[in-house]
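Morning. Coffee machine broken again, so started the prediction first thing and wrote up yesterday's gels while waiting. Chain of 474 residues, entered below exactly as on the submission form.
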Amino acid sequence: MSSDLIGETAVNLVARLKRKEVSPLDLIAALERRIAAVDGAVNALPTLCLERARASAEALMRRPVEARGLLAGLPVPIKDLSNVAGVRSTQGSPIFADFIPAASDIVVETIEAQGGIVYAKSNTPEFGAGANTFNEVFGPTLNPHDTTRSAAGSSGGAAAALAAGMAWLAHGSDMGGSLRNPASFCGVVGLRPSVGRCASDSKAKLDQTLSVQGPMARNVEDLALFLDAMSGVHPRAPLSMARDETSFLDAARSGWKPRRVAYSADLGITPVDPEVAAITRAAAFRLADEGVIVEEAHPDLAEAHACFQVLRAQNFATSLGGLLASHRDLLKPEVVWNIEKGLALTVAETTKAEAQRVAMFQRTARFFETYDLLLAPATIAAAFPIGERYLAECAGHRFETYIDWLAIAYAITLVFSPSLSLPCGFTRLGLPVGLQIAAPPRGEGRILPAAKLLEGMLGLDTTRPVDPRLPKAA
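Came back before lunch.
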């Protein structure tokens, strides 16, 4: 039964849990066997807390089924940037290599309140910096589709665990693509929700609007279910918002279709690998088969590079500036660079960046008066070799910094758009490619049914987990 359970969808398993056909303990046991079989090849879940999970499952099973929450006992891994009470929580940093928090973060409280059972922490780069999951505590996470390549990041452990069948749902977070990039590299679905959709801690900045918590899954319906479980107001999260009247799972199943969408291979701001551009363009234009008007267009996002560099650096200085003084020798060079850049910013630079963000948001809001959705590649290339710290070059263009290659994702962050990465095809080397689907703020109810429509049309069957493997021949 274990292997059959691993291949199930989260939606089906929750239904079976509610009918008591399987128990949370059955699912934990199935995961334990799968992790033992495959995680050695990818290093996605370096910290396990299976005894804690079993205790949580037993406590949940003492409740009536109707009181077990939306997830009803489904196990979920938590990204190692978020604290789980009593579980080693490192943030991928040697500074916190042995840290065991007494209390969980808000996002973990929310998931557990909805019947999610935490059984593991997923690997992440140090403090989530850089879209390649490696750190000095646990080492690199490898891509199950090709274990010589990156799983991206910073939710790389989450995406690799999903793809390799070590999770049915996975928690992550996203600032400049940290849910979307690994989803694209690993062939799963990842959503950056609207700001405030998933309540989170305000550890360094009360009005945090760059980074959000969000769901990952192997298909759109499973992701919608997890978004329902992660959503809602929390008294310690001042930007958090109430759940929508319609559940996101119902929205995904609604059959709604966009009338007009835009596709752009580069959003006017970045080079793109030609193969990725061709795969994503073909997927986007499949919507025309359903009567959707698909046009090549994008809003003016010209200031995205300069704006994001400043606001991201400010965020690093605010949240990690104290560690630079006390633990500089334990921070990776990219984190040091970002903190120092942030500490050196002038008021004039931050004022200009905020004005640029406002201008881009206003132009994008007007753009969405014409188009229901904006489609683009989720990443500008397929998974690169794991030995490279970041993508240094694409389509003959060499990037100046380690974050420039993420512009197609962070531009969408800057304009407050929720955005989903949907598997849409494979390169000639068998590497997954993700299509980014963005909407106006609070537009998840548009994204999910459109993504489900395309998912059905493309027929890639990403629900089936892959066994980690070495590269295909060209």
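The two ends are 36 Å apart (CA to CA). Going to sketch it on the whiteboard this afternoon.
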